[in-house]
């Protein structure tokens, strides 16, 4: 039985002071609420990670990084490693967000190294997968997604894929006006699960959580969550303020 997930990536938003306020708001909101059936994560910018781990302590909210390097230390100016994230209180790390691919030239070969490094120290990678608008138009979405997931997991032949989270985020739906349609999401999630079944076996296909992200809102989230192979919601803009994230968690 897969546990549901609700998460938000803050991107380059929320200072330390804002993070503390977000945490205070949530400490009050979560008190006395039954949230044991859902896993919740927040991915702040690096500078706010420590403040977030402190602010969310005692709540069911776990924190994670938005990226990391695949090496533990060394001459990599501006980078941060898996052990550093762990020390900052992280449980998760997001990898392969489309903005990393688009603006910073990341590739899935590099994501594979990061998945290996994260899993080595016990961080759960949230691996983003998604086709571009032109890949969608040319009917190549499922082939692109299969390649992305298999490349990302290539260094982990034995590990149960329950130890990773897959985030299906169509690149054309991120930061846009509308999410993908429920029919479209259902087809992509089912295809991804079939890739896992074919290459990793029935158990991995059953256990791996595949969450959806891309213009999710409190208004459309319920319908997306009702899709059979959707195991949770991954939210950007709609959850940068605590009130918005609370509305998303309430759906899950
Ligand atoms: C994202 O950037 O991962 C995302 C899902 O953003 P938004 O919800 O704002 O589309």
TrEMBL record:
What EC number(s) does the entry state?
A: 5.3.1.1
Q: Where in the cell is the protein located?
A: Cytoplasm
CDD domains noted in UniProt: TIM
InterPro entries given in the database record: Aldolase_TIM (IPR013785), TIM_sf (IPR035990), Triosephosphate_isomerase (IPR000652)
Entry superkingdom: Bacteria
Please name the GO terms of the biological process aspect recorded for this protein, alphabetically. gluconeogenesis; glyceraldehyde-3-phosphate biosynthetic process; glycerol catabolic process; glycolytic process
**Keywords annotated in UniProt:** Cytoplasm, Gluconeogenesis, Glycolysis, Isomerase
Q: In which pathway does it act?
A: Carbohydrate biosynthesis; gluconeogenesis; Carbohydrate degradation; glycolysis; D-glyceraldehyde 3-phosphate from glycerone phosphate: step 1/1
One Pfam family hit: TIM
A Gene Ontology cellular-component term: cytosol
Keyword Ribonucleoprotein listed? The answer is no
Keyword Cytoplasm assigned: yes
* Chief subcellular location: cytoplasm
A GO molecular-function annotation: triose-phosphate isomerase activity
Q: Which reaction does it catalyse?
A: D-glyceraldehyde 3-phosphate = dihydroxyacetone phosphate
Entry-linked PROSITE patterns: TIM_2
Assembly behavior: Homodimer.
Family designation: Belongs to the triosephosphate isomerase family.
Q: What name goes with this protein?
A: Triosephosphate isomerase
